[in-house]
Amino acid sequence: MSSETLEDRYQTVGSPLLEDPKMRIRSVDVSYANNQAIFDVNLDIGKNQVISMIGPSGCGKSTFLRCLNRMNDTIDICKVTGQILLDDEDIYSKNLDVVELRARVGMVFQKPNPFPKSIYENVAYGARIHGLTDNKVQLDELVEGSLIKCGLWKEVQDRLEEPATGLSGGQQQRLCIARAIAVNPEVILMDEPCSALDPIATATVEELISELSENFTIAIVTHSMQQAARVSQRTAYFHLGKLIEVNDTSQVFTNPEHALTEEYITGRIG
Amino acid sequence: MTDSQVNNVDRKAKLLKKRYAAESRFKWYGRISVGFGIACVLFLFTDIISKGVGAFTQTYINFEIEFDESVLGVDATSSPAEIKSASFGSFFKKQLRAAYPGAKSRKEKSQLYAIFSSDMPLILRNMVLADPTILGTRKSISMIADDDTDVYYKHGYGNDSNIGRLSDFQKIIVNEMISNGALEKRFNTLFFSNADSREPELAGIKGALVGSLLTLMVTLLLSFPIAVATAIYLEEFAPKNKFTDFIEVNINNLAAVPSVIFGLLGLAVFINFFGMPRSVPLIGGFVLTLMTLPTIIISSRAAIKSVPPSIRQAAMGMGASKVQTVIHHVLPLALPGMLTGTIIGMAQALGETAPLLMIGMVAFIVDVPGAVTDSATVLPVQIFLWSDSPERAFVEKTSAAIMVLLAFLILMNSLAVWLRKRLERRW
Q1: Which pick of A170, B117, B147, B362 has the fewest CB atoms within 10 Å?
Q2: CB atoms within 10 A of CB B176
Q3: Could you report the per-residue pLDDT of A68-99, keeping only the tens digit for each?
Q4: Do B88 and B49 belong to one domain?
Q5: What proportions of chain B, in percent to the nearest 5, are helix, strand and coil?
Q6: What domain range is B49 assigned to?
Q7: Are residues B17 and B65 located together in one domain of the fold?
Q8: CA-to-CA distance for B205 and B218, rounded, in angstroms?
Q9: For residue B2, is pLDDT > 80?
Q10: Nearest to residue A19, comparing CAs of A53, A64, A49?
Q11: Which residues of B touch A115 (CB under 8 A)?
Q12: pLDDT at position A3, please?
C-alpha cells in the first residue's frame, strides 16, 4: 500500500485517544505557505508518559512536535489550524500567553544549544526570566537540583562558572535538559535529542528520559526505532504528514496494525 | 595494466601538472597584489613622514632680555591692567635693536624683528603678567623663531640651497646667532597646544583635533543607538514584506551616496530650514551621522544575522519573550560585529572632508572649541586648509597633520580588531 492511496482525511489506526490525557490534539493541519505538512492529526498525550514519534524523514513529526509549544509561531509562513489542548486549555487561544505556555511546555532540541554563558547561568536562565526564585540561595538550590536530576551535578559542580560550550556534546545535551526542567514544566518536548550524540552519551540521555518520565510528560521525536522502543510507552508513526498509527510501543514494534508501519519498522521504507 | 589504463595514467599526470601550475600561478597573483599594496602604503608613509617629521620640532632662539621698568613704564607694583596696556611691542623691538646694532635702515630693522615670531611681545607680556617680579631683571628667554628662520635653520643653513625666504641681511644675523649657539631645535609642543594661526610657527592642530573629537562624539552618540535599534528592528521584529525590502534597498543605496550630498542635505535641512548655526561640531556630527548610519546598520544587521538560530530557539523554547531573546542572547553575540562596524564607520567619519565643507566647518578658526556649539574645524579640513597655504612651513604642517590623522585612524582600526578579538574570545 503506497502513500498515494491514503485519503486526505485519513483515520489513524490503533488507539490515538486516551482517558484523561495531558494534551489533546484535534484535527490539526499545518502548512508552510502552500505546502501542507500535517494532515488532520488527532492524538492524546498521556500524563507522565513518554510518547515517541517515529517516521521517515520529512514526514512532519518535528513540525508536529513544534506545534505543541507554538515554536512554529516564529516561522512566518507556517500556519496551524485545529485545536491543541493542554489540560483542557486551548494553547492557540488568543488569551493564552505564549511565554507562559513555553514555561509549561519545555523543549530540547536536536543539536545541543546551550547559551554561550556559564553552566550556572544556563540552568538559572529560565528561573530568572520567569521570576521563579526570590533570592540567590533558592536559585543555587534550583540549579543544583536540576543538575542533579540530569546526573550532571557531579561532573560540573566544580566548574559552574565555566562556559557551557566547553562541555562535551552529551553533557551539553543533558545541560539543555537540566535547563528545560529547571522551570519545572509539565511537558517536555524533545526533537531528536540524541541524534548528535555518540552511543554512550545517547545511553545516558535515554536513561535520563526514563527517569524524568516519573515527573514529566515527555513527547520525543526520534529517528531511532530502538530508542523509541527503549524509552517510550506509546509510539506514533507518521507518514507524509499523516498520523498512521498510534499504539503501545511494544505493540507497534511487535505487531503493527498498519501495513505502512510494518514496512517502516522492518526497514523497507525510511 | 591494460593499454587504456596506461593511457589514463598519462592523461592524469598531464592534468595534475597543469593543476599545480595553475595553483602556483594563482598564489603568485595574490602575492603580487599584496606586494603592490604594501609598496603603495610604504610609499605613502615614507613620503608623508619625510615631509612632515620636521613639523614636530620648532626652532627657538635664546635671547637675553632686560625687563627695563623705565622703558616699559611699569614696575612690580603695577596693576595687571597697567601691565596689559604697556607697550611690549616697542619694548621688544628696542631690545632687539640694542642687541643687533647692525640694523640701520627701517627695512633692516623690520627684517630683524621678523626673525622672531610676531607673537613674542604678547608672550613677554603674559610672562610679566604671570610674574611681575621679573621686572627690572635680566633674563634669558627661549624665543619662538619665525617660520622663515625655522625653515632656514632646519633645511637651509650650512648648504648652498636657497631654501626659505630670509633676506641676506636676516641670514647674516641668524648665522651669527647660530654660531653663538643661540638657536636650538626642540620638540614642537605648540603644534599640539595651539589652534590654527596665520603664522605657521604658531599654528597647531589642537583646535582641529578637539573639533574632530567633538564632531565624532556627536556622531557616535547619535549613530550607534539609532543604527543598532534600526538593525535589531529590521532583523528581528519587522515583518518581511515589500515595504521592508524597500527600506533595505534604500539603506544599501544610502551607503553608496557620495558624502558631499549629505553635506548639501545638512546645509539645506539643518542650517537653512531649521536655522541652526553653521561651522559647529553639532551640525557636523548630524551630517556625519547621516553618512555613517547606513554603514553601521548594514554591519549590525550582518552581525545579528550571524548569530546562530539555535540560540534564538533555545531562548524562545525557554519561554523568553522576543525582546528578552534579543537583549539577553542575540545582542551580546552580535555586539563585537556591531562595534567593529561602528568603529569603521567612525574612522570613515573622522577622515571625511567634503560634507563638512558644505556646512561651513572650513572657516579659519583660531580658538580651541570648548563645546559642540562653538565654531570649529576638523582634522581633514585643517589638512585641506594648510595644503592650500603657500608658506613652506605649512607644507610641513600639512604632512604632520596627516600623520596625526593617520595615527588616529590606525588607532581606531586596531581598536576595532582588538575589540572583536577580545569580545569573541569570551567563550
Answers
A1: B362
A2: 12
A3: 989 888 888 888 999 999 998 899 888 888 88
A4: no
A5: 70, 5, 25
A6: 3-53
A7: no
A8: 20
A9: no
A10: A49
A11: 311, 314-315, 329
A12: 45
**Final residue of a domain: which of B36, B53, B70?**
B53
Is B311's CB within 8 Å of A74's CB? Answer: no
The domain in which residue A243 lies consists of 10-94+104-113+167-174+185-265
First-last CA distance in chain A: 15
Q: Are B233 and B331 in contact (CB under 8 A)?
A: no
CB atoms within 10 A of CB B198: 11
Residues from chain B contacting residue A126 (CB–CB below 8 Å): 318-319
- Is A86 part of any domain? yes
The answer to whether residue B231 is domain-embedded is: yes
Chain B, nearest residue to A100 by Cα: B319
Q: Give the distance from residue A218's alpha carbon to the nearest chain B alpha carbon, in angstroms.
A: 15
The structure's pTM equals: 0.81
B329 touches chain A (CB under 8 A): yes
Residue finishing a domain among B170, B193, B216? B193
Do B237 and B312 form a contact (C-beta atoms < 8 A)? no
With CA atoms as reference, report the closest residue to B60 among B180, B146, B173. Answer: B146
Cell of B179: 654660531
A71 closest CB neighbour out of B317, B329, B333: B317
Selection from B254, B201, B207, B203 nearest residue B226 by Cα: B254
Contact of B338 with B299, CB cutoff 8 Å = yes
Residue B306: which CATH number? 1.10.3720.10
**Contact between B284 and B361 (Cβ < 8 Å):** yes
Q: Determine contact: B216 vs chain A, CB below 8 A.
A: no
Per-residue DSSP letter, A165: G
